[in-house]
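Q: What would this chain look like folded?
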Amino acid sequence: MEAVIFSIEERRELVRLYRRLLRSAGDSLSKDDIGNLRRLINRVAVASGVVSRDMYGFNLWLRNMHTALIVSDEIGLKRASILSILLFNLVMEGKLELKDIEKTFGFDVSGIVKGLIKTHELYVMNAAIETENFRKLLISFAEDVRVILIMIADRLFLMRNSKKLKNEEHQVKIAAEASYLYAPLSHKLGLYKIKSELEDLSLKIQDREMYDYIAGKLNETKRSRDQYIEGFIAPVEKQLREMGLSFDIKGRTKSIHSIRNKLLKQKIEFESIYDLFAIRVVLDTPSEKEKAECWQVYSVITDMYQPNPKRMKDWLSIPKSNGYESLHATVLGPLERWVEVQIRTRRMDEVAERGLAAHWKYKGVKGESGLDEWLESVREVLENKDTPPSDLIHDFKLDLYDEEIFAFTPKGDLFKLPKDATVLDFAFAIHTKIGSKCVSGRVNGKNVSIKYKLRSGDQVEIQTSPNQNPKQDWLNFVVTSKARVKIKQSLKEQASKQVEFAKELLYRRFKNRKIEEDDAVLMRLIKKKGYKMVTDFYTDIANEKLDVNSVIDQYLDLDKKEKELTEHSERSIENYHAVIPAEEMSTKEDVLVIDQNLTGVEYKLAKCCTPIYGDDIFGFISSQGIKIHRMNCPNAPAMFSRFGYRVVKARWSGKSGANLPVTLRIIGRDDIGIVTNITSVISKENGVSIRAINIDSADGVFQGNITVMLNNTDAMNLLIKKIKAVKGVKQVSRY
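A: My prediction, written as structure tokens:
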């Protein structure tokens, strides 16, 4: 952190933010809190005339003020969290000690500060996923939920101000973390509004072309959407008013990120998405009438519009683990369009918008046992130090994004599980021993296998056997992190026992044949046989895939050859010349610079995103060498999140590259000659040739892909512009 002048403009902004924060905090901050805080700000930030800046160049006091406002206004945390955010940098800079904070502001504040310092130090040490620091970071998250909420707020501030980050690498890293860690955490903690904003802002950085396309389409269709919502709402509103209910009803457009996911998942065009928006009814009702009035509204809407029973979701009877309560119905509205309707009360809406903090407001911090259960399961995953980094983030995310179901034991005990949970997941949820010995189940009185996927409301009885042990294929169908962790632990223990058995068996056979074992020769034999892991070699012996006597014979042959070679080398060393194979270099003209300034490095262009000269790119070190991907490659977020240590910088050099394939997605009216006109435009372009055409036509609309060979993005953009000018063409985009 660098100390620089605290400018007059920054001081004015600090005062403005400070006043806003005091209004937002209300009476949660006492006069003593405000007095002590003002003295610290004046003494450290204002009077000294200098201020520390973070690695991105942000004034730390202003960054923390903004974060505290998000925490207060948008999440609903007050005194302890606000004070912790404003104080922890003073401790980091050595201007205040934790014991001073505890003495002045209390143990609760100092505890959060301690958690924030720990997470900050881990980031400074590089908490990339491949490091042990990332595990520590997540564990510190799991110690106090408020630390998670504050870090989410801080990340939201950074994402909202990402334009101010001049370093593109910082932008990409912050966006990647927001999408693979902070957005799922926000979802789990019920901060749906923040989760959607983080995802949209991440998409804006990671795939600006897609973001702008969807945003533009939403803007174009806004008027017709508003008219449709108005027509849908009017009769419902009239009926509810006549019933004497007090409520608000409005429509909201779904997030750009969720629309993008639909486009990719369903492989459809924007115009084919029917559920771009949802209608929300928010009731003003006393707590004792909440459920009854929600069901009344449901009855009115489903009488008026045909419901889809498969899309009905009841989170009134059994809320989600994060406190979310609502009633969802999907109904067939005017013009035969499906519309999602959400029905909830004012209290439920506040919990849905502001998550756990709002839930605590109504039920107290200890009011939601589901949170404690989740944190405990997270700790279980994180504290298993044998879990490799890639599995760690996978298991962690399993408990973040989930649609919940609930199932019961024969005694009526309720277990909440993620969607697609199996009988085996249920068994591990009850107890690790029951899961490990599970052989089948009875669901609603019927015998089922351990792979059977449960549905909400199922009554499940687990059948066990003392002879059962976890199998490798179990990992293919369990979905809970607890089940995965426990199965892996058991498999590792079994493998360890097998390895010890195989080692003992091999040792005895060596001894029986009166052969003195040389570990170095044995290791070379194992490598020669193609084993990357020594344990795999011993496991194959234990499973009788390798014959012990055959292994010993091969060992003797190798040992004999090595001794003969050594003798020969010693005799003729004077005339010995080693033949060193020349290093394979790229024969391509150097149009790429890898990492800092490396040229002449062998690389391949990834087939998943087919980059061409001019694209924003990065290199990824794979088992086949370095592969070059576009920054907006659909696989990029996963690469950055799971294998960040394999990512290297890459940029184009020179003026242009070789001709490479680019696929264009074209949609238009099915007019006579339109395809001929398009191909004519392409053929007239210098240095551009057609490689493949695949066109489909239905209901007066044609759509298809044309693959062309060209050498840079300028040529591609010019070609797209010219194709768009062809009469009848509605849309052209890079596929």
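Residues 364-369, 568-589 have pLDDT under 50 and may be disordered.
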